[in-house]
């Protein structure tokens, strides 16, 4: 692991021949990634409406956001959809991961291929596919269509997260349990599920984030009766500047930071 | 061995049913609809036609498609150009700082991409950060029109998609066997030669994977072009959305989507070819995807 750090000769490629070039590159990347986020957070507390200059600290945009019923309703809907879709996708993904890990069945390769292809398929293609099936089955666009669509596009991610965790186990533990007389169900309950718990949590958090982040699929499968946050925010920021969105961004940043830290911590726990 | 195992059924059937009903069948429906005819009243008339695909070659659309593919290609190229040396830097950090740097790359990815696109809009606007900065240093007198240009769209796409390029590159570069580089240097290879003949071929799966997961979404993220590009810088995603949600030409929209799937197939093929070649050569093993 640490072997190549102690080597007497280190290789540098032409693009970081000089330290300057290296730090210029690293600096540019981090500035690029973080300046926009900092601008949003600062503007969330800036008294100036258009955020072009600093006019002092204020919390009035938080108040405005709180009073904006449309946005608050949409936020509540989004959280409900994200939590339900993440839970459903985690359960289905865990079951699917166990199926691929534990059992041989007809169509196993096909199932794996389907999961992989779905993960790679551009969102817009999934979006119209969902729209077509919902129309064909007469499912009206609202909570249920969002739940089905979001669960479907999260499923590959939860399945693969759990599967790769299972793949790293020692298979002998399960065999030992069975030799000692544990039923398949007991082995599942006492061994597989506890061992994959961090992956289940990480998969849930990833799905939750993907669901909250989704604009493309939701644009196709949400209806006017059940508006969710990304769609609402999209129509707001298309028109112009809206300080409430800055505040919302700050809140979502805090939420996602908490979630990342949580998931990193969970995945690191062996 | 023949113990009844109810869990077998529970783990195999529901998820397969779900995938068939909500993924496989709908995708096949897109394929079928792409050969159907548009119907003003019923949306879709079930008359077989190849017109939808022929229309892809219509100069009006062809121009939009080529422009969209060009923007996506530019995005992928810039992500690669910026991402490769960056991932190299990441892979060579000591474990502690590396974990921190990786964490910093991943955070934006977990932050809402629509809201981050809005941040880019704020920064590029006439009174935004870049114009203010340039004016205060005195490089320009009048604010530049940065928004609603191909530049703004690519700037936004690179911003959102950059982590997707860095992570697969990083996971390949991290596993790069440095003794190979050392051997090459000892045998007298120059830096460029090492890069061209060893580093790049060995990280090809990461390069192709990164390009794939940047290029495809870059053709589809219509909210980025809507917010930053204006009417002249449409992506394929905008065209598909317009066919479905405003001009109500579902068959044509489906044909564009099928074309996208074919494009994805081609790129996946390239990816598998690249990893197969590496595995045959006994180099790094494929765990990127």
Helices, strands, pairings?
The complex is a heterodimer of chains A (270) and B (289).
Chain A: H1 19-44, H2 60-67, H3 69-102, H4 108-120, H5 123-137, H6 143-167, H7 171-179, H8 184-195, H9 197-213, H10 216-221, H11 229-239, H12 243-268
Helix pairs in contact in A: 1-12, 2-12, 3-6, 3-9, 3-11, 4-6, 6-9, 7-8, 9-12
Chain B: H1 6-33, E1 37-39, E2 43-45, H2 51-54, H3 59-91, H4 95-110, H5 113-124, H6 129-137, H7 150-174, H8 178-186, H9 191-202, H10 204-218, H11 222-228, H12 236-245, H13 250-280
Antiparallel strand pairs in B: 1-2
Element order, helices and strands of chain A?
Answer: HHHHHHHHHHHH
Radius of gyration of CA atoms of chain B, rounded to a whole number: 23 Å
| Radius of gyration of chain A, whole Å | 23 Å
Poorly predicted runs of chain B are 283-289
Output mean pLDDT of chain B. 88
How are strands sequenced across the largest beta sheet of chain B? 1-2
Q: Approximately how much beta-strand content do the residues of chain B carry? A: under 5%
N-end to C-end Cα span of chain B: 35 Å
Structural class of chain A: mainly alpha
Helical content class of chain B: over 70%
The helix content of chain A is over 70%
Outline of chain B? globular
The quaternary organization reads as heterodimer
Shape of chain A: globular
Number of helices of chain B: 13
Individual helix count of chain A: 12
How much of the sequence of chain A is in beta strands?
under 5%
Query: Can you count the beta strands of chain A?
Result: 0
């Amino acid at each position: 692991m640490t072997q190549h750090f102690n080597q007497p000769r280190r290789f540098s490629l032409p693009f970081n021949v000089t330290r300057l070039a290296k730090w210029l590159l690293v600096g540019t990347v981090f500035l690029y990634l973080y300046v926009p986020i900092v601008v949003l957070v600062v503007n969330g507390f800036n008294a100036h409406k258009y955020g072009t200059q600093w006019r002092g600290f204020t919390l009035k945009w938080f108040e405005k956001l709180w009073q904006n019923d449309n946005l608050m309703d949409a936020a509540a809907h989004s959280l409900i959809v994200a939590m339900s879709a993440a839970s459903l996708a985690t359960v289905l993904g865990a079951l699917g991961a166990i199926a691929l890990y534990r059992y041989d069945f007809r169509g196993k390769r096909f199932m794996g291929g389907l999961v992989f292809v779905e993960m790679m398929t551009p969102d817009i293609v999934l979006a119209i596919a969902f729209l077509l099936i919902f129309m064909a089955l007469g499912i009206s666009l609202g909570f249920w269509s969002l739940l089905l669509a979001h669960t479907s596009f999260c499923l590959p991610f939860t399945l693969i997260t759990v599967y790769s965790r299972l793949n790293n186990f020692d298979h002998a533990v399960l065999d030992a349990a069975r030799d000692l007389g544990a039923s398949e169900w007991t082995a599942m309950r006492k061994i597989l599920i506890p061992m994959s718990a961090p992956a289940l949590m990480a998969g849930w958090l990833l799905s939750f984030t993907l669901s909250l982040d989704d604009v493309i699929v939701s644009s196709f499968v949400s209806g006017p009766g059940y508006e969710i946050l990304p769609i609402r925010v999209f129509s707001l920021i298309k028109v112009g500047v809206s300080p409430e969105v800055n505040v919302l961004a700050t809140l979502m940043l805090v939420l996602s930071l908490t979630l990342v830290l949580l998931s990193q911590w969970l995945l690191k726990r062996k | 061995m023949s113990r009844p195992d109810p869990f077998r059924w529970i783990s195999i059937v529901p998820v397969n049913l779900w995938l068939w009903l909500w993924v496989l069948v709908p995708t096949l429906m897109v394929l079928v609809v792409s050969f159907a005819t548009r119907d003003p009243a019923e949306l879709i008339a079930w008359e077989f036609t190849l017109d939808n695909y022929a229309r892809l070659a219509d100069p009006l659309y062809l121009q939009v498609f080529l422009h969209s593919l060009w923007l996506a290609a530019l995005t992928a190229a810039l992500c690669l150009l910026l991402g490769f040396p960056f991932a190299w830097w990441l892979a060579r950090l000591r474990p502690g700082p590396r974990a921190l740097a990786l964490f910093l790359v991943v955070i934006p990815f977990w932050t809402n991409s629509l809201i981050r696109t809005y941040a880019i809009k704020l920064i590029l606007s006439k009174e935004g950060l870049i114009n203010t900065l340039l004016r205060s240093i005195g490089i320009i007198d009048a604010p530049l029109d940065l928004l609603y240009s191909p530049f703004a769209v690519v700037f936004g796409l690179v911003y959102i998609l950059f982590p997707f390029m860095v992570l697969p590159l990083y996971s390949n570069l991290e596993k790069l066997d440095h003794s190979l580089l050392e051997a090459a240097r000892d045998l007298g290879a120059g830096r460029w030669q090492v890069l061209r003949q060893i580093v790049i071929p060995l990280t090809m799966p990461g390069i192709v994977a990164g390009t794939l997961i940047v290029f495809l979404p870059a053709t589809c993220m219509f909210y980025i072009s809507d917010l930053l590009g204006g009417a002249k810088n449409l992506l394929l995603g905008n065209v598909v959305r317009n066919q479905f949600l405003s001009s109500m030409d579902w068959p044509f929209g489906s044909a564009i989507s099928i074309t996208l799937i074919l494009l994805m197939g081609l790129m996946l093929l390239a990816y598998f070819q690249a990893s197969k070649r590496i595995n045959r050569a006994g180099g790094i093993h494929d765990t990127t995807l």
